[in-house]
C-alpha cells in the first residue's frame, strides 16, 4: 500500500488566475485505505515499485487487489527486471521548492521538513534545483549540507535570497551574497546561481542591469540568473550567466543554441507539458536543465479553491510528511526524467552498438526541435519512443519485453 497513489476527485481552479472551478483528479493521495470504486466512475492507481539493487534479472508476477463496497477487484501485475542499471540523466530536471508555509506562520522543525521533502524527491529521482534557502549565510550553508547529503551534484538556483537582500539595500545584499559564496565554496557544494529577476517588466531593466553590474564588480565570479518570458527582456542577457527561458521568450532549439553561442547556460522553465519538457524535448533542445514551478505554493488555504487569489501550485502537497500527497504533474515530470535516463543509456550504447546508434538517430529525427510541436505530441508517443529503447536494451541483454 505504501507505494500506491490514488486520485480522489476535488474542485480546482480551471486555470492559474481563473475563478471557474472544475472537478479534478490531478492531486494524488498515498495509500489505498480511502479509495472507493463507485459505479460509472473509473479510478486510476499509480504504483511505485522499488526493485532492490540485488534483485536477480527475470520476470516477476503478482496482482493488485482492491476491496470496495464488498467487491474485490484483482488486476495482474508483471515486472521484468533487466540485468542492467540505468545511468543518471545527463541533464537535470526538477522543481522550485519552498518549505510548507504553515512552518513559517506557526513555527515547526523546518530542517526536518526539508529533509522529508528531499527524501521524497530523491526517491522519485526529481532534483530540487531551486531549494528553500535561508536569508543568512550560516543557515544557507546548513541547507547546502543537507542537499549534499542527498546526492545533489547539479548547479542550484537561489531564487529568493538576492531579491530579498537587495530590498534591504545594496550593501546588505553584497555582503550577504559574498559571505554565502565563501561558505558554499568551503563546503565544496555545486555552484549557486543567484536569481536577479523573474519575468521583469521592461521599465525595471535599467535598474536591474545596474544592480547586476554592481554585483559583478563587488563579487568577482558571482553567477547571476534571470527568468525570461518575453523578447523585450533580452537586454538582461548582457549581465546574466544562466538564462531560464520559456515559450514566451522562445524555447526552441534554435533559441537555445543562440544563447549558448553567447556563452550563456540555458535552462527551460515552466513549460506546460512536464514529461516532454523534462525528457525527450530537453534532450533535443540542447538546454542544460529544466525546472518547473512550483513544489509548494498555496495561495491561501491549501486545497480550498474558493480561498485565494489564484490556483494552488502543490506538486509536493501542502505537507510532505504528515499528509502524503503529490501533484500528478510531478509524476509526469518524473516520467520525463526516466525518459532522459533511457536516452542517456542509449547514447552510451550507441558508441559500440550499431542498433543503438540507428535508434538514437531515429529518435533525434522524430523528436521536434520546436517546443510548440513537442508540446502537441500525445503522451503515448513518448511511451512508444521509450519502449523502443527498452526493447532494444532487452534484446541486447537477451531478455525479450512484450
From TrEMBL:
<protein>
    <recommendedName>
        <fullName>Glycoside hydrolase 123 C-terminal domain-containing protein</fullName>
    </recommendedName>
</protein>
Amino acid at each position: 500500500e505504501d507505494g500506491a497513489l490514488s486520485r480522489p476527485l476535488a474542485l480546482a481552479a480551471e486555470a492559474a488566475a481563473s475563478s471557474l472551478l472544475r472537478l479534478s483528479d490531478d492531486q494524488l493521495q498515498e495509500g489505498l485505505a480511502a479509495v472507493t470504486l463507485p459505479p460509472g466512475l473509473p479510478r486510476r492507481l499509480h504504483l511505485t515499485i522499488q526493485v532492490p539493487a540485488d534483485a536477480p534479472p527475470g520476470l516477476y508476477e503478482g496482482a493488485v487487489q482492491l476491496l470496495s463496497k464488498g467487491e474485490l477487484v484483482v488486476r495482474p501485475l508483471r515486472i521484468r527486471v533487466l540485468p542492467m542499471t540505468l545511468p543518471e540523466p545527463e541533464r537535470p530536471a526538477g522543481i522550485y521548492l519552498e518549505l510548507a508555509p504553515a512552518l513559517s506562520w506557526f513555527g515547526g522543525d523546518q530542517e526536518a521538513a526539508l529533509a522529508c521533502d528531499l527524501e521524497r524527491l530523491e526517491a522519485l529521482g526529481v532534483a530540487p534545483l531551486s531549494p528553500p534557502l535561508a536569508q543568512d549565510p550560516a543557515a544557507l550553508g546548513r541547507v547546502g549540507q543537507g542537499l549534499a547529503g542527498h546526492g545533489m551534484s547539479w548547479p542550484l538556483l537561489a531564487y529568493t535570497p538576492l531579491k530579498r537582500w537587495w530590498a534591504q539595500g545594496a550593501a546588505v545584499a553584497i555582503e550577504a551574497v559574498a559571505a554565502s559564496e565563501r561558505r558554499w565554496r568551503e563546503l565544496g557544494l555545486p555552484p549557486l546561481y543567484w536569481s536577479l529577476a523573474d519575468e521583469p517588466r521592461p521599465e525595471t531593466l535599467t535598474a536591474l542591469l545596474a544592480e547586476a553590474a554592481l554585483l559583478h564588480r563587488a563579487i568577482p565570479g558571482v553567477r547571476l540568473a534571470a527568468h525570461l518570458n518575453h523578447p523585450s527582456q533580452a537586454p538582461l542577457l548582457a549581465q546574466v550567466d544562466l538564462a531560464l527561458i520559456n515559450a514566451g521568450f522562445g524555447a526552441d532549439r534554435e533559441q537555445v543554441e543562440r544563447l549558448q553561442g553567447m556563452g550563456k547556460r540555458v535552462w527551460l522553465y515552466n513549460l506546460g507539458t512536464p514529461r516532454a519538457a523534462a525528457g525527450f524535448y530537453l534532450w533535443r533542445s540542447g538546454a542544460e536543465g529544466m525546472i518547473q514551478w512550483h513544489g509548494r505554493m498555496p495561495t491561501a488555504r491549501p486545497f480550498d479553491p474558493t480561498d485565494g487569489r489564484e490556483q494552488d501550485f502543490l506538486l509536493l502537497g501542502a505537507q510532505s510528511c504528515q499528509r502524503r500527497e503529490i501533484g500528478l504533474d510531478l509524476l509526469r515530470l518524473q516520467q520525463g526524467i526516466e525518459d532522459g535516463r533511457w536516452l542517456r543509456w542509449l547514447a552510451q550504447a550507441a558508441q559500440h552498438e550499431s542498433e543503438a546508434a540507428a535508434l538514437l538517430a531515429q529518435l533525434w529525427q522524430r523528436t521536434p526541435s520546436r517546443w510548440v510541436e513537442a508540446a502537441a505530441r500525445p503522451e503515448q508517443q513518448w511511451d512508444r519512443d521509450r519502449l523502443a529503447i527498452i526493447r532494444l536494451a532487452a534484446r541486447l541483454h537477451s531478455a525479450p519485453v512484450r
